[in-house]
Amino acid sequence: MKIIKKIDPVQLGKTLSVLFGLxxxxxxxFIILSQIFQANKGSKLIIFYAFLxxxxxxxxxxxxxxxxxxxxxxxxxxxxxxxxxEDEEIIQS
Length: 93
Description:
By secondary structure, this protein is mainly alpha-helical.
């Protein structure tokens, strides 16, 4: 059993930034496609939606830093998250 004792705030921020950005691109692409086919909607909404992935990436970065800092503070009191790791067998032929 392993215990996560510390999380690097900037690294978690970068990871969540990429994750949030990619997920946002996926979801926003469907929204933009639906807006394109609705003639009564202006192009302002499409421009707004186009910038959402960047916004979500920034929020993910800042949120990741905050979560890591809070985790690192709490781990002093509760001891961290315990995880069980298993080595994978590599079969060579």
